[in-house]
Amino acid sequence: MENITNADLKVLKIEIINEFRRIVTEEIFRHSSAENEFEWLRSKSIRKIMNIAPATLQNLRISEKIRFKKVMGSYYYNKKDLYKLFEPE
């Protein structure tokens, strides 16, 4: 049985994050083409793409990590801001 080092865990973490980025990016592109390439997406679409709870999306909005617009009671989020969430800092 092999010992797992901190370096191994860091490599695994990077691989998981990169895979998550790839999946989210693919889902955003796939979903975007289905909605005629709108730059702004509704809350429900964002939650479905990212598989997150409404409260998580609300926290992203409150912390100003993604831009939003409220139109007649519905929130719309900028697609480009979603990409920025997964870019390396």
What key attributes describe this structure?
single chain, three-stranded antiparallel β-sheet, Arc Repressor Mutant, subunit A, elongated, alpha+beta, 3 strands, 89 residues
Structural summary, described in words:
Keywords: DNA-binding. It is a single chain. The chain is of the alpha+beta class and 89 residues long. It has 4 helices and 3 strands. A 3-stranded antiparallel sheet has the order 1-3-2. The longest helix has 29 residues, at 6-34. The N and C termini lie far apart (36 Å).
Determine the N-to-C terminus distance: 36 Å
Identify the CATH class: Mainly Alpha
Domain count: 1
The backbone outline, from C-alpha atoms, is: elongated
SSE topology string:
HEHHEEH
Round the Cα radius of gyration to an integer and report it: 16 Å
Topology:
Layout: H1 6-34, E1 40-42, H2 43-50, H3 54-62, E2 68-71, E3 74-78, H4 79-85
Helix pairs in contact: 1-2
